[in-house]
Amino acid sequence: MDCHWRFVEDRLFHIYQCFYQQLLFIYNMSDQTRKRKSESVDETPLKSNTSSETDGVRHGSYHQYYEFRSEDSRPKYIEKCLPELLKLIDKHQEGKDIYLLDVGCNSGKLTRELFEKLKNVCPEQQIQVLGVDIDQELVEKATADHGSQFLEFAHADISEVSSSKETNQIERYMLKKDIKRFDFLCCFSVLMYIHLNHGDDGLMRVLDYVCSHTELLVLELQGWKKYRDHARRMRKLGAGEYDHYSQLTWKGSNGFLEEQISDYVVSRGFTVISNTEEKNEFNRDVVIYARNKS
Question: How confident is the model at residue 274 (pLDDT cuts 50, 70, 90)?
Answer without folding.
Answer: confident
